[in-house]
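Schema walk-through. Below, the input block comes first and the output block second. Nothing else is stored per chain. Lengths vary across the set, and this one has 169 residues.
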Amino acid sequence: MKHFIIYTIFALLIGCYPKPGKDLLTNISTLPSFRIISLDSSKCVNTDDIPTGKPILFMYFSPDCDICQQETEDIIQHLDELEHTDIYMIANESAEASRNFCQTFCLDTVKNIFIGTDYDYSFFKVYSPRGIPFLAIYDSNRNLKKIYREKTPASFIVKALHSHNKRYN
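--- output ---
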């Protein structure tokens, strides 16, 4: 009988323990508020000010990361399919490293890409990415569509942008 009571209490405690990531998904199910500063510090974007009407892709990256560079190359190859998507590439590295990255990939010539730094770690605090690249996709109404926590083919990103289902990796 003693063991039965202990097992029952243990089972109840496990059942009451919150599932990992559930709070995160609740907090980011609609576009949360955070700030990104442009590489030249001339513009600060607050996500509260991003208009509805276009899907949004956030890519958290490191300019020195080979996988992030490959991800960027793949996205560039699919820009025609992403032309109606606002893309925000966010680094927490130095602005100099991010500027070099931007020049290497000619990203400053792409009108729907904004590259900035997570200067006050507000993106990091909201999403708590465990690795890079980290991608968050929102639909045109600012609702979360998909999260990718690793290198992802751009074709998957395009598919997620056009799907009507929410899925999380």
